[in-house]
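Cross-posted from the bioinformatics board.
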Amino acid sequence: MWPHRDFLDLVGVELPIVQAPMAGAGGAAMAVATCEAGGLGSLPCALLGADKVRAEIGVIRQQTKRPINVNFFCHTPAPPDAAREAGWRSYLAEYYAELDLDPSVAAPGVSRAPFDEEMCEIVEDLKPEVVSFHFGLPAPALLDRVRAAGCRVMSSATTVAEARWLEDRGCNVIIAQGAEAGGHRGMFLTDNVASQAGTMALVPQVVDAVKVPVIAAGGIGDGRGIAAAFALGAAGAQVGTAYLFTPEALVSDLHRAALKTARDDQTALTNLFSGKPARGLLNRIMREKGPMSGMTPGFPTAGGALAPLKAKAEARGATDFSSLWSGQSAGLCREMGAGALTRQLAADAARCFEAMAPAN
Amino acid sequence: MWPHRDFLDLVGVELPIVQAPMAGAGGAAMAVATCEAGGLGSLPCALLGADKVRAEIGVIRQQTKRPINVNFFCHTPAPPDAAREAGWRSYLAEYYAELDLDPSVAAPGVSRAPFDEEMCEIVEDLKPEVVSFHFGLPAPALLDRVRAAGCRVMSSATTVAEARWLEDRGCNVIIAQGAEAGGHRGMFLTDNVASQAGTMALVPQVVDAVKVPVIAAGGIGDGRGIAAAFALGAAGAQVGTAYLFTPEALVSDLHRAALKTARDDQTALTNLFSGKPARGLLNRIMREKGPMSGMTPGFPTAGGALAPLKAKAEARGATDFSSLWSGQSAGLCREMGAGALTRQLAADAARCFEAMAPAN
């Protein structure tokens, strides 16, 4: 029933639905449920140490025989900049005072490590069918080893130029990530969020520019969006925010509650939580100091200074300093299991195809 | 062949394609060509005086018997603010010096007048089948008269809240305008461009929120986008940028040349040219002073101070100070007549529907 089979045949899955790897929010359970339902389940590894990556892949392999996607960041970490870090902390001093916190005990930032030798060895050892990257691709020597292990390689493009760059370096599938998408932009040849295209405009331009299968991402929250992705020429869709509504999502109760009441116009791109632009639900710190700021330290350390504020505010039930990652389609999403969601997305897309058939 | 006929039946056109009213760039010729091809041609009146509006509608009525759309702005003009205006001019002083221009002779801003008594009389007199508004709706007394004249009313929503507001006030068709769209945002309940949703996310959320037909706008540059709009639940698509590539478009040679080479990542929302956010191709003034600025006078007077700079730079072949309106889909567009474009959009959308049919 799917108009294009390029992605299905290349990866060996039944449904052209990629569960977006969402660092911190997705684990083995979400990936397994998605895979067993016929989609491509993904394990986000950006926040995991090597032992944990190995263990999580092991759990997935025990529970499903289907193809899986293992996702890594491949950014170049910003060099330490004590002056910038100090400036950022003093910029936040008013909040430390308000919450009666000592600014000198600010925790280090969340550790988001790029793909490296150790992770590459795990990939060579465990051979996930798909390895996907965010922020471009790793160094050629590492990428060659991933390919030599038999893994298909996917990465995200936020512009046509990035898509061409990825294809030129042997990427097998390109995720065209429109501005609607939640979490971190995959952008790597530019840092200009003002000029990033939306999914409706980006996907057909990427499809026209490359020969490999294109997966549409950004703002796709139900079967209508998946059908629209195919209309635009994509060979599948990556869905993130809808999976945050599943019990398999490793999100806080506060984050979950915020998602359930989110409207279409309540997200923005912000660099306050990491130093790189990512889309999340608007909250107090984004309204008062952003959403984009020229003051943040480089990725990924900006979050360190916010961590104590986040912890104390959340203990009081407030999300004033929390990164509430979400795409623009939260208003389309409903709570259900990740397996049921995967099947429903496919069934709803099928209904859309039928409704659009010329015979009607 | 069209999956939804709500819009077609309501307005009485053959094709669910609305040629976007683009103030300054569209005139009678573009509207006539679109109407004769079966789409809904639009006459943008925001920059026209009453006599010109009457004359243009007269020309259209002579050349086509099909339904037409006449479009008006209905903003509340910002009150004069001499201090702000002076601040804006001094902020631009470096450019006046560079181009050897006297800043004291800056021209007044482009006149964009809101829908008023005089325009309402023309509508009552000439009874266009559709009257569309940008920036909300006119005062109830005027709107009632438009409806009493038998005109269907359309307006643009950039959020679900705006869509509900328009439906509550009797709007017959809602244009869901995603962030990809070129020219001025129709936003009127908010001025926050950072949180505006893209077309892929906005359209289904608007469709779920209102009962009237929804037209998708933003990033739709070819038949694939039209098919995608239907997949998302829309009853048609509004297309703007593609019509700027037609000989009927009243755009400068410089603007036309810039559109022909535009890439997906070369537009941004800017308020530099009018005081309200509008999407255009990135140029020097947007890069150096924006794209968004807190310095501009209120809509619509900001352009006044730029007019002499624009004129002198364009005489030298430079678009440094020109508003080069464009959506994010210019890279999908090709030069052809407005009638041929309308027919090709419909034919390409039909091919997409066939390609997506379950039998394939």
